[in-house]
Amino acid sequence: MTFSRLSSNGLKTPALNPTNKESVIYRIHPEREKGKLIFQIGTATPALAVQAARLVARDVAGIDVNSGCPKPFSTSGGMGAALLKDPDRLCSILEALVQEVGIPYGIGISVKIRLLATQDKTIALVQRLCQTGIHGLTVHCRTTPMRPRERAIRDQLKAIVETCHEAGVSCVMNGDVEDREQALQLMQEYCADGAMIATAAEKNPSVFRTKKDGGTAPWRDVVREYVNEAFSVDNRWANTKFLLSQLIPGKEEKSINIAQCKSHEQIVQALGFDELLDFARDLDVRLVINRLDRSRAAKRAVPREETKAKRARTDDTAAEPSDMVSEITTSSIAPAITV
Prior knowledge:
This protein is of the alpha/beta class. Helix content is 47%, strand content 14%.
């Protein structure tokens, strides 16, 4: 299942741009991921939070509200860490999600926060959030101004966990958790119900494996398994390439030169996965990216030709404005959903 939309960057009516292409914003494999996926949303209003959550509620195990992201693209719209300064609004969002999505669809609602300036302020916020009906709370053990290079602060963690447990809410810790073994040790130390691994998992998702299963695997084994999975679900080329750049260590990535690869075929050749060549070539054809012989001039000519064709279609349909308005409205308001 794929959700996509036209990019609205700098455009009031994205559908009017003939060179604008749909971007995939979310994909899910209902059979493989059923019961395993928590869908996190950034939101600033209860109504939009509910509307977005309902789109995926039948295919996820829970909805999490991100009220910890410190990035300007999030906070400038009143989302992310901006909600920590507006607890009334954050609580109204959570209450709406619990009542209108969590209960009707039988899934959990949770929230992720950051530490406030003092423990008293953090605990006061946690107490309010726990009264909204949420099932879980994750605390990133850094304050909003802190960057990832600064060590996580766990001085407030035990008090936060106790506050959650008193309200019957699960508490998950986050911040500088590197692998499964460390996560289990920290959970025991702070009595937390779980530990979230972020940065380390982006570099090597095998950090979740037990020692019995081999622990953290070599990057090459992880990359091979990832490539197999990506190919099996026809993952979008740009996303596959980006994630490979995260999984391959810096020095190795430079020698393999993933950035210069223009197709799945080139990727498997660069990695030496020759047994996947036929599969990669077939995928390039299916995803229509096997156009390596086109010159730059030819590539630049395509948008120009598409623009001309769009103008011609517009001229031809000028006498039928109602159809044009209907198309623009549908494309610019609702994301495309394909199954």
